[in-house]
Specification:
The protein has 67 residues and is mostly helical. The chain has a domain of 41 residues. The chain is built from 3 helices and no strands.
Length: 67
C-alpha cells in the first residue's frame, strides 16, 4: 500500500503558496453596485413616513424630558 503525501495532492496542493491579497476589478464593481443599492434602500426606509414620525417623536421626547 502506497501512502500519499500531502504535498501536491489534489486541489490543496495546487493552491498551496497562493495568496489572494484583494479583490479583482469585477469584484470591486459588484461590491460598489451592492453598496449603492443598499444605500438607496436605506435612504427610502429612513425617509418614509413611519420612520420619520418615529424619529421625530423620539427627538421630541428627548427634548421635553424633565430633569
Amino acid at each position: 500500500m502506497q501512502r500519499r503525501t500531502r504535498r501536491g495532492a489534489g486541489w490543496r496542493g495546487a493552491l498551496r503558496g497562493r495568496w489572494d491579497a484583494g479583490m479583482a476589478t469585477a469584484e470591486y464593481a459588484v461590491g460598489t453596485i451592492a453598496a449603492c443599492a443598499f444605500a438607496a434602500v436605506l435612504y427610502k426606509v429612513v425617509t418614509s413616513g413611519a420612520v420619520n414620525g418615529a424619529l421625530q417623536s423620539v427627538i421630541e421626547k428627548a427634548l421635553h424630558a424633565n430633569f
